[in-house]
């Protein structure tokens, strides 16, 4: 299921194990806005670091908000050059999918090799708990769409019908998609609105849309979404929402089941964990 690690992880960087990250205390996972796919990557990496008992902070942010003292930055390959130009002193790692577990496993090995415990730790260990309700009425199976725009509009319309957003939010979802793809990898996309559309969000919620035949989210046939999860979140609740979805989608077997199941209760059981 995973792309080859060396082909999609580093552009000319040393192979995993050839370099240690001595004394790194914070890893930055950056995306276009800081509220979308980067949150997913940060949640996955945070969990793996905790499992490895490494007291290393993981922060997600937008490219433009990367601090000057950032030492280690992870971005999607389409954004790496922008991040490198902004913070040339940092080490930059790029990936093709924020759901690439092999990438994070290799990175944890490297971080562990150079790990130096911090003297103090006042950081929050867990992301915020999502403040939303997810029910059968928010699950739509066996859908078909010719384009990603059609799939995104459907998800947006269902968010409107569910009382989560105003109709203006649907257009904001398309604007966000044009800025940078919300395709995560492994057949999953999480379309959501832009930051300027936050006033169009009435309450936090998601809709799950299944496309067994897939919907192309780019010109690359590998980026075909079978699971499209429309997200609307008030204030900073997007962090809790995406973190919860990331934990729920941590199993390859569950992802495959979600792509093909005809049982909405099975979807509800997995995404409500």
Q: Percent range for helical residues?
A: 25-40%
Instruction: Give the CATH topology of the largest domain.
Output: Mannitol-specific EII, Chain A
SS-based structural class? Answer: alpha/beta
**DSSP helical segment count:** 9
> What letter string, H or E per element, gives the SSE order?
HEHEEHEHEHHEEEEHHH
CATH superfamily of the largest domain: Mannitol-specific EII, Chain A
Q: Give the C-alpha Rg.
A: 18 Å
Overall average pLDDT: 85
The strand count comes to 9
What percent strand? 15-25%
Tell me, briefly, the overall form: globular
Distance between the termini: 23 Å
Residue windows where pLDDT falls under 50 for at least 5 positions:
1-20, 120-130
Q: What is the structure about, briefly put?
A:
By secondary structure, this protein is an alpha/beta fold. It has nine helices and nine strands.
What does this structure look like?
The protein has 273 residues and is α/β, with parallel strands linked by helices. The protein has two domains: 5-113, Rossmann fold (3-Layer(aba) Sandwich), CATH 3.40.50.2300; 136-271, Mannitol-specific EII, Chain A, CATH 3.40.930.10. Helix content is 34%, strand content 18%. It has nine helices and nine strands. α2 crosses α7 (237-248).
